[in-house]
From TrEMBL:
Keywords: ATP-binding, Ligase, Nucleotide-binding. Residues 19-436 form the AMP-dependent synthetase/ligase domain. This is Long-chain-fatty-acid--CoA ligase. The keyword Magnesium does not apply. GO terms for molecular function: ATP binding; long-chain fatty acid-CoA ligase activity. Pfam families: AMP-binding, AMP-binding_C_3. InterPro entries: AMP-binding_CS, AMP-dep_synth/lig_dom, ANL_N_sf. The keyword Nucleotide-binding applies. Signal peptide: none annotated. One of its GO terms (cellular component) is membrane.
Length: 658
């Protein structure tokens, strides 16, 4: 359906798609939510009724056209309903990260000027009340979960269910007003405002129109043949653009079912019960699941470990070819089929991946070994490249053209070009309208012709036309001898190892590369227990000599691999240390989407970086940390600095031979 056809059909807003779905898919499930261990379901017709009642309730409370409605809480149907209900009233939904501390929340609430805040539970209400005068625009709080809320001052606070009840009672009085506001919503009206992760400064409010969301949802759904029969699991932060496009944009365009897990702790169990057919996860989710699988294999009996290793070797050799429909010998097919019965099938079922037809990963580059592991199991995992400013989709990998080292071809409707500097630029129907109240940043990011600077460095492969992203353009540099430096390339290789949770590589302008390593407490703790190694804290385990020895093996294996890359062979790690604490969003070291804030880390840990380069074997440091209740504390530690073996590059070997 072309733009003009969509406009003629009246499908110019999310509420218009809801009305269509209530008629076309009225009896099909639109939402499911697991609560108290039981799945509850709402059809599209029932969801439309619930959303209308909430929209009318907002009108009763005085919600005006153009008002901002902040939504903060876990993934729940009621919170998605609140976003659509706000749109029906002509207001703008602004989802927030539920794990944001009060200071972060205060900034977003004040910046967007939210009058209403929909909170998931008492914890979120408390954070909104705590910010108080720092968010003076907030006039009314609506909460979803009533537990613990009885003794609060309710003069400007209501339960969401009560707001809906007020809305149902006001149908005769306000129904025509709601219909009028919904009817005038246009393609270029604001659909949602989403805040960037803020890797280099304060988050920016990205304004996305109905055109941005609907056109992108339509094009991307056609690309992967999404229908009303898909099942998705809505578990990623509602403030993240990926969740909005999957759980609202595509869900409303295609009419498929959005399933909300009971909690983060039950997500894997809930996923097995649902069996999604369309699934998205950032690399850290796939990394965490692979770590869990490897830990379980280490604890398994000798026969099971042998079977796993044997059949995974078969899967790595022929699994991707079978997935892409390429020719595979009869003996290998039979061998793989046996592996599917004994290993791959049970493993996919355990992970909840048995029914996945299309899977995507994005947000950060995924390690090639991790990516290949899942595809070898027969899971159609692909990569996409996107941004909040693009309504997600910039490139996607078509079926049959999936590789770990590219992010695919331009998504439908997207144009790409590479600047002489190597930076990637794009334009598409999904390109954002503006950064809210920030014309300078808007002008520096999007030019008059609609081209957007991604901030990423990349190039097109000859022949295939696939895009390869090297790193963030600002992070790609040169070492002292002129060799290219791209830290993310090495970091992703390191994070393939289950023992390594996070890595930060340094080397721009230096004569060698060094690294900070975060161990994965689950994986390394499991190893310590198996080997009867006692430890009292993350810090103690991170500094254990055997842990250092294991990490050194991983670093040297990565160096061996990096040495074979003619472009990035200079990025081998010469010295490293294992950090005494995990990098934490609450300490400002990472974003809420778990992207490393390199400038903050470089400033905060300058003493450790200096020690990596001045030849010291140990370094003593103090680090301020933030506890879960918001209190500040300090960690003191003496860290060991370890040297790692580096390897001759292919080019240097050739020169030596000559």
């Amino acid at each position: 359906m072309q733009n003009a056809e969509a406009a003629q059909a009246g499908l110019q807003s999310i509420p218009a798609l809801l009305a269509r779905n209530a008629v076309r898919f009225g009896g099909r499930p639109a939402y499911r939510e697991k609560e108290f261990g039981i799945w509850q379901s709402w059809t599209w017709a029932e969801a439309a009724t619930e959303i209308r009642a909430l929209a009318l309730g907002f009108l009763v409370l005085g919600l005006n056209r153009g008002d901002r409605v902040a939504i903060v809480g876990r993934n729940r149907p009621a919170h998605y309903w609140a976003m659509v209900a706000a749109q029906m009233c002509g207001a703008v939904p602004v989802p927030l990260y539920q794990d944001a501390v009060a200071e972060e929340m205060a900034y977003v609430l004040h910046h967007c000027g939210a009058r209403f805040v929909v909170c998931g539970d008492q914890e979120q209400v408390d954070k909104v009340l705590e910010v108080g005068e720092r968010a003076p625009s907030v006039e009314h709080i609506v909460y979803t979960d009533k537990r613990g809320m009885r003794k609060y001052d309710h003069s400007h606070m209501n339960a969401l269910a009560d707001v809906q009840a007020e809305g149902r009672a006001a149908e005769q009085r306000l129904g025509a007003e709601l219909d009028s506001r919904t009817a005038v919503l246009g393609y270029d009206d604001t659909c949602v405002m989403l805040y960037t992760s803020g890797t280099t400064g304060k988050p920016k409010g990205v304004v996305l129109s109905n055109r941005n969301i609907i056109e992108t949802a339509k094009n991307s759904a056609a690309f992967d043949h999404l229908t009303e029969r898909e099942e998705v699991l809505a578990y990623l932060p509602m403030a993240w653009v990926g969740d909005f496009i999957f759980s609202v944009g595509q869900a409303y365009w295609a009419g498929f079912t959005v399933n909300c897990p009971e909690s983060a702790h039950t997500m894997m169990t809930d996923m097995r019960e649902i069996g999604p057919t369309y699934f998205f996860a950032p690399p850290r989710v796939f990394e965490g699941q692979l770590t869990s699988v490897m830990i379980r294999m280490e604890d398994a009996g000798r026969l099971k470990r042998w079977l796993f290793r044997h059949f995974m070797a078969v899967a790595r050799r022929v699994g991707p070819a079978l997935l892409d429909g390429k020719p595979v010998g009869l003996l290998d097919r039979l061998h793989h089929a046996l592996g599917n019965v004994l290993i791959y099938g049970p493993l996919k079922n355990t992970l909840g991946y048995s029914r996945i037809r299309v899977g995507y990963t994005a947000g950060e580059a995924i390690g090639p070994e991790i990516f290949d592991f899942y595809r070898s199991l027969g899971i159609n995992l692909k990569q996409l490249y996107g941004q909040t400013e693009a309504s997600v989709f910039i490139t996607q990998q078509p079926d049959g053209q999936v590789r770990s080292d590219t992010v695919g071809v331009p998504s439908p409707g997207v144009e790409l070009r590479i600047a002489p500097s190597g930076e990637v630029f794009y334009r598409s129907p999904g390109v954002f309208v503006e950064y809210y109240n920030n014309p300078e940043s808007t002008a520096s990011t999007k030019d008059a012709e609609g081209w957007v600077a991604t901030g990423d460095a990349g190039f097109f492969e000859e022949g295939s036309g696939h895009l390869r992203i090297i790193d963030r353009a600002k992070d790609v540099g040169r070492m002292a001898d002129g060799r290219m430096f791209a830290p993310k390339y090495v970091e992703n290789k390191l994070k393939f190892y289950p023992n390594i949770l996070e890595a930060v590589v340094f080397g721009a302008g230096r004569d060698m590369c060094t690294a900070f390593i975060n161990i994965d407490l689950t994986a390394v703790g499991n190893w310590a227990e198996r080997n009867n190694i006692a430890y009292a804290s993350y810090q103690e385990l991170a500094g254990h000599p055997q842990v250092y020895a294991t990490i050194k093996e991983h670093v040297e294996a990565v160096n061996d691999s990096v040495a074979r890359d003619p472009m990035l062979s200079g990025c081998q790690i010469s010295r490293f240390l294992v950090l005494h604490k995990e990098l934490d969003p609450d300490d400002g070291e990472m974003t809420r989407t778990r992207k490393v804030r390199r400038n903050i880390i470089a400033e905060k840990y300058a003493d450790l970086i200096d020690a990596l380069y001045d030849g010291r074997d140990t370094v003593s440091t103090r680090t301020e940390v933030t506890y879960e209740d918001g209190r500040k504390g300090e960690i003191r530690a003496t860290l060991k600095i370890e040297s790692a073996r580096t390897f001759p590059t292919a080019q240097s070997q050739k020169v030596a031979a000559e």
